[in-house]
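Q: My labmate handed me this sequence with no annotations at all. I'd like to see what the chain might look like in three dimensions before we decide whether it's worth expressing. Could you predict it?
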Amino acid sequence: NMTPAEREKQGITILPSNLSLALENLQNDKEFLQELPKPLVDTYFAIKRQELATTSELDDQAICKQYSQLY
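A: Here is what I predict for the chain of 71 residues:
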């Protein structure tokens, strides 16, 4: 395991631990987003926001069950 200082020195960042944080990171990556078609970005965020709304009140087991039924 690396210390936070070691990770920073190596330029290593920790990945988001949940969908909400991942979406926040993606929304803040303006350079990446401008490379994608705006309708695609808008649709992706709309779908993921709905996914968050649908799963926000579920516990981990219920979320796993829901995803297993979808995929």
